[in-house]
Design goal:
mainly alpha, globular
Length: 424
């Protein structure tokens, strides 16, 4: 594929960024620019690039990408998460959970405690999105109680969520990375752990000693602990490995029962709260569908094929091969906005490079997983940031500057390539 054709195939991604950035400059505010509009512009432009297809066939390619099984599964999560979050708030579960947390954890340790909790939960359940769904509503309410910026508190959860998603044995990214490279999960875990542990420790130190100043917490009075049961149940069920869709359905049912029994809302209010929760997820769902369609267009045009061919042609050494694996994964993830899809796409190429240049399979698997998490953490159109922003009612762009952990693991990936770590 010629350079011109290859760059043209990738140009819908460039159009997306240009429209989004141009809109932000004209508006003078990133938070006022709907990213869905940028995706629509990129989608229309991408459809115009096709040759030899009528309009119906072009739209069909876009639609098949938007209706991908992974995207449909994510939309189920978005819908149920919106209903649960809105119902729990209406019932008083959020306020009760916040009051209970403030009773138990000293305010100066709250940021570090939230980070550790997010790391632990995501490690146990193997999904960053599930962790964000469980913890974001609580930390959003906590932020107003302790006088901290909401986006900063939400970023703590997102960072911790990626820690577990990157390491967990049941994470889809771990499974995809190890299967594509033919290595054992425990070997990938050991290698991965040595790379990300310093990043996690440094991030924890920031939250312990460099966190935002918190105001004195106002006494919450008596804590209605029973109203915190839905959130506690969601976390416990997630930790024991129950599917996130089942967790959200059960959490909503328990919320509704408690709310009706204690008179927090009427049956009519119950449905109203559920409707408000669904409405809050509309833009998030729309962006997810559009992203899937645009990336399908880029793939059909040959954009990913060009990217792979261009980068792999420059490899001359083991260090260079590792750098290409990480960079190729990052760029593919940037285009697809899905770390699992990025790993599966790059996996066969990474396997060939590891065999050719003597890279241990566990190191290649670790690079695939970690590099994808770095980029996914900073995508304003990625599922994790969209979910966190939707639940916290902030802009994804507002969260990004506070994401310390994804940045630190990016630094550690570079160090591990340059110094060829781990040595054993």
């Amino acid at each position: 594929m010629s350079n011109f054709r290859g760059l043209l195939a990738l140009s819908p991604v460039l159009v997306l960024l240009v429209v989004y950035l141009l809109g932000a400059l004209l508006a003078g505010d990133f938070y006022r620019v709907p990213i869905a509009v940028a995706f629509v512009a990129a989608a229309i432009y991408g459809l115009l690039l096709f040759k030899g297809h009528n309009l119906q066939e072009r739209v069909g390619i876009f639609s098949r990408g938007a209706a991908n099984a992974d995207i449909m599964y994510m939309i189920w999560i978005f819908c149920l998460a919106g209903i649960f979050a809105s119902s729990a708030k209406a019932m008083g579960a959020v306020d009760a959970t916040v009051a209970l947390t403030l009773e138990v954890v000293p305010r100066e340790f709250l940021p570090a405690g939230i980070f550790v909790a997010a790391c632990f939960v995501s490690m146990a359940i193997g999904t960053s999105v599930g962790t964000i769904v469980a913890l974001t509503p609580v930390v959003t309410a906590l932020s107003s109680q302790i006088g901290c910026q909401t986006a900063w508190m939400v970023a703590i959860v997102v960072g911790g969520a990626f820690f577990g998603d990157n390491l967990s044995f049941i994470s889809d990214t771990t499974i995809a990375a190890t299967q594509s490279q033919g290595c054992r999960m425990k070997d990938k875990f050991k290698t991965n752990f040595t790379i990300v542990l310093p990043a996690a420790i440094f991030t924890l130190m920031l939250y312990l000693f460099g966190n935002q100043a918190a105001d004195e917490v106002i006494s919450q009075g008596s804590v209605e602990w029973f109203k915190a049961l839905p959130y506690l149940m969601v976390i416990i069920l997630a930790l024991v490995g129950v599917n996130v869709l089942v967790v959200l359905i059960l959490g909503t049912l328990v919320t509704d029962v408690i709310g009706l029994l204690c008179g927090s809302f009427t049956p009519l209010h119950l449905f109203t709260a559920a409707g408000e929760g669904l409405n809050s997820m509309v833009e998030l769902i729309l962006v997810t569908l559009l992203a899937g369609g645009v990336m399908a267009v880029v793939k059909e045009l040959g954009g990913f094929e060009y990217l792979i061919d261009k980068l792999t042609s420059k490899v001359r050494s083991r260090r260079g091969a590792e750098a290409v694996v990480a960079l190729l994964t990052a760029l593919t993830n940037f285009c697809t906005a899905n770390n699992t899809i990025a790993i599966l796409t790059v996996g066969p190429i990474a396997r060939d490079l590891s065999l050719k240049y003597g890279i241990p399979a566990r190191k290649t698997a670790s690079l695939l997983d970690t590099a994808s998490c770095v980029i996914q953490g900073y995508l304003p159109y990625g599922a994790q940031l969209l979910m966190a922003a939707g639940l916290a009612s902030v802009s994804p762009v507002e969260i990004i500057p506070h994401l310390y952990y994804p940045f630190m693991i990016g630094v550690m990936v570079l160090i591990s390539i340059i110094l060829q770590l781990p040595k054993r």
